[in-house]
Amino acid sequence: MTEDSQRNFRSVYYEKVGFRGVEEKKSLEILLKDDRLDIEKLCTFSQRFPLPSMYRALVWKVLLGILPPHHESHGQVMMYRKDQFSDVLHALKVVRFVSDATPQVEVFLRMYQLESGKLPRSPSFLLPKVFEQYLNLEESRLLGHLNTCSAVSKLPYDLWFKRCFAGCLPESSLQRVWDKVVSGSCKILVFVAVEILLTFKIKVMALNSAEKITQFLENIPQDSSDAIVSKAIDLWHKHCGTPVHSA
Fold this sequence. Notes:
14 helices, 65% helix, 0% strand
């Protein structure tokens, strides 16, 4: 049995006996011990498995370029990043894009836009069209109902695709979605939105106005969030495949 086959066998065994994630955690710890962290392997791991909470902040910072791959530079670079954070926040307040009353989610969005030269952000983006495409593949009758109610253009796209479900999903579920986003797969957001519609299909089909549908989707019940994210990840793998390490 090859090493990869043994690893896959162990992973299946751990999952069956209720210890899912044990093997994955060990694999991540091996990756994090390298003197120079392998960004590609960390991306692949983040897309295939949920990140353990104790390592999530470190992996996100490395994948987002906040920290360099070299361990010995992390302390000094973090000091620079803290100063940078203060400078960017001050600049946004000076130009009145944010204030002390601005929601934290929006502040972080504006900071990113300023750093990436996209302030103000263009309102045109393609995720709604991709969302319609996959919803049609999964449940065309539901999309037809949304069109009949003139609700498609009024769905909470800002909440879903600009705020990446912050304020929609609880933190524990949100982290699993952001693992994929941070590692470069923004398309997961589309499948979370699709799965929300599929999960609450009966409720949405019973609503007959765009306003009622949008209001419900902006305040979905929180007790289904973990299941929604799990099913959304399955949908993502179904349509986009499962990421693997390159040779």
